[in-house]
Design brief:
Helix content is 35%, strand content 27%. It is an alpha/beta fold. Bound molecules: adenosine-5'-diphosphate and magnesium ion (MG).
């Protein structure tokens, strides 16, 4: 397993947000972490990264216990994160934004170069010299993902990457995520978009109010309308 999270609890102040959430992501696999707005998906990713100070539980990345480690170290050990808000440098060009994410190659994980990322996201190649503030929202999302990949992660966590994107761009995104999996990356995908999730994910975990309500394959989930209706916005 590339990423194992065991019984994670997380708190903001005195409010408990996550209750014993356990999940695993293998190399070359995408796990969809599904749930409605406010279910705790983003908190889960932030807690895994050590960005939520108050948490309990165990997080193991590529066989190493990273619970309690500082966020910077966790990222340098190969955990990539693409937050909900696209954090690009609007005055810098697309290529310059990519350079900011560059990390040395890592043994046993895919090694990304700017040219390889441009073949993963052909749209970006066309705007490579443009200031990132002047490209479309879909291109900015692709840029954020690409910049994270420049760090050569072994696991990438994507927080609602399809949100607000046109259907054609969402399809492009699904092709790219599938390609990342083929390269051997583990993908943890926090999503509300079931169509996008089913296009790229192998298994799903549904959380509601910070508790797991469903775990299984996407086929099982899609066959069970009651589950989707109860815990997802469908
Ligand atoms: N910084 C914060 N401080 C206090 N409460 C927060 C904070 N961020 C999120 N929450 C609360 O935590 C819960 C889970 O939020 P979040 O993880 O963002 O859900 P999701 O990503 O599934 O929409 C929500 O009730 C939200 O209001
Ligand atoms: Mg969220």
């Amino acid at each position: 397993m590339k990423l194992e999270v065991h019984k994670l609890d997380a708190f903001y102040g005195r409010a408990q947000i996550l209750f014993g959430v356990t999940l695993k992501v293998a190399a070359g696999e995408a796990l969809a972490l599904l749930g409605r707005n406010g279910a705790g998906k983003s908190t889960m990713l932030r807690a895994i990264l050590g960005l939520v100070a108050a948490r309990r539980g165990r997080v193991v990345l590529d066989g190493r216990d990273i619970s309690g480690m500082a966020t910077g170290r966790i990222v340098r050990r190969g955990l990539g994160w693409v937050p909900e808000d696209r954090r690009i440098f609007t005055d810098l060009s697309v290529e310059e934004n990519l350079e900011i994410g560059r990390q040395p190659p890592r043994a046993g994980v895919p090694h990304w170069t700017v040219e390889r990322l441009f073949s993963l996201f052909p749209n970006l190649a066309e705007v490579r010299r443009r200031p990132a503030g002047q490209i479309s929202g879909g291109e900015q999302q692709m840029l954020t993902i690409s910049r994270t990949l420049m760090g050569n992660p072994c696991v990438i966590m994507l927080d609602e990457p399809s949100e607000g994107l046109a259907p054609l761009i969402v399809e492009r995104m699904a092709v790219a995520v599938t390609e990342m999996k083929r390269e051997g990356l583990g993908v943890l995908l926090a999503e509300q978009n079931l169509t996008f999730s089913r296009a790229v994910s192998d298994r799903a975990t549904i959380i509601e109010k910070g508790r797991i309500r469903f775990e299984g394959t996407l086929e099982c989930l899609l066959a069970d309308e009651a589950v989707a209706r109860a815990y997802l916005a469908v």
